[in-house]
Design brief:
By secondary structure, the protein is of the alpha/beta class. The chain contains nine helices and ten strands. The longest helix has 39 residues. This is Universal stress protein.
């Protein structure tokens, strides 16, 4: 086991933490890698609605108010830390019972984005949950943290939703880009999907270069022990992938992630965001 190539599982106090842990355990078994459960406590100062927090109160009252708020904040922090320890202890036991051989946990207090940027070093896979049942016409709802994590990640990111289901059949949204070609090499060199069925799917009629890349990808994946096949379907990538997921019985989607800048995505939209908001299956985003 390579202890320097951990699976970093980001958990919170929602029911999604169990799902993230279960997928981290699945990945740990297949990769023979340690799991690190990360829970970040963000600092939010909450003030009572029936108190006057304006500058219109006297200096002595202001000092008493600040002392009281500081004490309340410290109490909330202590309570959140204890809740976090209990959460991580239960999830660590869950992972160990699921077959993960080495499980560590880390409780941090601060900014979640900065913490994840620091903690992903030394990891081989980042797993994060997305709450909510997406709709095929969904436009927003990913959440600030999730999109930031995926954009800033230097490792593959597995975004999971709803209940855990062990992956057996995988759909790879292949477009012939450098990201997906590198993704093929990454999957071929990893035991994560070895022995599973994987279908590479191109939306639209592939050109000669795309068809050549698709054929080469199948050969490479089959040689690595993955039951790979390829197909093409007419239509937009979002519609084609959504239809395939709805009818093909796939347990996981693989695709490239955010090849354009946040500004371009703001102006023209993002295929990654569109796809994530239109699927309910776990999505492995290649970086």
């Amino acid at each position: 086991m390579n202890i320097d190539r951990k699976i970093l599982a980001c958990v919170d106090t929602t029911p999604m933490a169990d799902v993230v842990t279960d997928y981290a355990t699945w990945a740990a078994r297949r990769l023979d890698a340690p799991v690190e459960l990360l829970h970040v406590l963000e600092r939010h100062v909450e003030l009572s609605d029936n108190q006057d927090h304006s500058g219109a109160i006297g200096l002595d009252a202001q000092e008493k108010l600040m002392d009281r708020l500081t004490q309340e904040d410290a109490e909330r922090t202590r309570s959140a830390r204890e809740q976090g320890r209990v959460l991580l202890s239960g999830l660590r036991e869950r992972a160990e019972q699921g077959g993960a051989t080495t499980v560590d946990s880390r409780l941090r207090h601060g900014d979640i984005e900065e913490t994840l940027a620091e903690q992903q070093e030394g990891s081989r896979l980042l797993i994060i949950g997305r709450n909510g049942h997406p709709r095929r016409d969904a436009k927003t709802g990913l959440g600030q943290h999730l999109e930031w994590v995926v954009r800033s990640a230097t490792r593959p990111v597995l975004v999971v939703t709803e209940a855990y289901r062990e992956p057996r059949s995988v759909l790879f949204a292949f477009d012939g880009s450098s990201v997906t070609r590198k993704g093929v090499d990454m999957l071929a060199g990893s035991p994560l999907l070895r022995g599973l069925k994987l279908q590479l799917l191109i939306a639209g009629e592939p050109g000669a270069a795309e068809q050549k890349s698709l054929d080469a990808a199948v050969v490479s994946l089959v040689a690595a022990g993955i039951e790979a096949t390829a197909s093409t379907r007419a239509g937009s990538p979002k519609e084609v992938v959504a239809d395939a997921l709805a009818t093909g019985g796939f347990d996981m989607l693989v695709m490239g992630a955010y090849s354009h800048s946040p500004l371009r995505s703001l102006l023209f939209g993002s295929k990654t965001t569109d796809m994530l908001t239109s699927t309910c299956v776990p999505t492995l985003l290649l970086r």
